[in-house]
Design a protein that fits this description.
This protein is mainly alpha-helical. Helix content is about 80%, strand content about 0%. The chain has one domain. The chain is built from eleven helices and no strands. It is globular and about 60 Å long.
Length: about 240
């Protein structure tokens, strides 16, 4: 499984589309959104966490695109004749997603510290990176579910829609205080909103709230079940 993991990580990091969309785009959007208008230090910190979360979500979902491509070229069929169990295949893909979100998170955090002058303690920087890394797992499972269930082209569209929809409604691009009351209430139950709160809580000097962890765990179960069901469905036909 470790060999499989190394193979998939190298394939992902060599993908120019992943580097541009998953790493460069969140950094550019962060610098754009935080350098228009008045110089607001608190917004630069909050937006840094939000855009790091946005990059992590996009990178995690991108794992599903690789699954869909593997399915179309017969790679999943080849994996079925290896000693790897179905669980190891899914775990390997999940670990791939967990590894490939790190560059997206790190790039935005570096931009916040070096370009926008965000100042946090070493412990806060490390905790934000670690929590965003761990919190990205539900989105990896969502991407895997889409990849196992859909074609490569449809998976790309579905993942893009999921990324944009979850990010905008979850408040990763703009503060949810700008939302109407009904949308603000809805946002609190979305995985992206609670995902970003893992980092913003630490940046504010607090531990993540139990409610935040509970909502993310619920979404982890939902997306995990979706990935398992999708894999079982494709295993019967590939």
């Amino acid at each position: 499984m470790l060999d499989y993991l190394r193979l998939e990580v190298r394939r992902t990091l060599r993908d120019v589309g992943f580097v541009i969309g998953g790493i460069a785009m969140p950094v550019m959007m962060y610098l754009l959104f935080t350098n228009l208008g008045a110089d607001d230090g608190s917004w630069k910190t909050a937006s840094m966490v939000g855009m790091a979360a946005y990059g992590a979500v996009g990178s995690a979902l991108n794992t599903g695109g690789g699954v869909a491509e593997d399915k179309s070229v017969g790679w999943l069929r080849q994996l079925r004749v290896t000693p790897m169990t179905p669980r190891e295949v899914v775990v390997g893909r999940t670990l791939t997603g967990a590894v490939t979100v790190l560059p997206a998170i790190a790039a935005v955090l570096v931009a916040g510290g070096l370009v926008n002058g965000v100042r946090l303690t070493v412990g806060q920087w490390a905790a934000i990176a670690l929590l965003l890394w761990l919190g990205s797992v539900p989105f990896t499972l969502l991407g895997l579910g889409n990849g196992y269930r859909m074609t490569a082209q449809t998976t790309g569209v579905a993942n893009m829609a999921c990324n944009l929809g979850l990010s905008v409604v979850g408040g990763l691009w703009f503060p949810i205080t700008l939302f109407p009351d009904w949308l603000r209430s809805l946002s609190a139950y979305t995985p992206a909103n609670r995902f970003a709160q893992l980092g913003t809580a630490v940046a504010d000097g607090n531990a993540p709230a139990l409610g935040t962890v509970a909502v993310l765990m619920a979404w982890l179960l939902v997306f995990g079940s979706y990935a398992v069901v999708s894999y079982r469905r494709v295993a019967r036909t590939v």
